[in-house]
Design a protein that fits this description.
By secondary structure, the chain is an all-beta fold. The chain has no helices and 11 strands.
Length: 121
């Protein structure tokens, strides 16, 4: 069974930085792509940025230049480095990955349960 677990959320003041982590575990054959999403109160879930297997990342305009997505030395780990945080960044942040497993060679999307980031003075 595949599991995605986010961590690193919390409350910070505007202008500060925070790093989120996503750890993938289970009977994994490969991870084709990974992404971060977020959902603010009363709003739909939106894409923050996505990383394909080749490592290229596409970011939402609202976070471009401030957020950075990367993979760890252990390739089952993904980070979201956030700097110059703003109140409008307040949201639950979700990890998403397209993963092939021993039970599903074609792959399927998986989601974490989210971690809350609150930016407030």
């Amino acid at each position: 069974q595949v599991q995605l677990v986010e961590s690193g959320g919390g409350m910070v003041q505007p202008g500060e930085s925070l790093r989120l982590s996503c750890v993938v575990s289970g009977s994994i054959l490969s991870i084709a792509a990974m992404a971060w999403y977020r959902q603010a109160p009363g709003k739909e879930r939106e894409l923050v940025g996505d990383m394909a297997a080749g490592g290229r990342v596409n970011y939402a305009d609202s976070v471009k230049g401030r957020f950075t997505i990367s993979r760890g030395d252990a390739r089952n780990i993904m980070f979201l480095q956030m700097r110059d945080l703003k109140p409008e960044d307040t949201a639950v942040y979700y990890c998403n990955a397209f993963i092939a497993t021993t039970e599903n060679f074609g792959g399927a999307p998986y989601w974490g349960e989210g971690t809350l980031v609150t930016v407030s003075s």
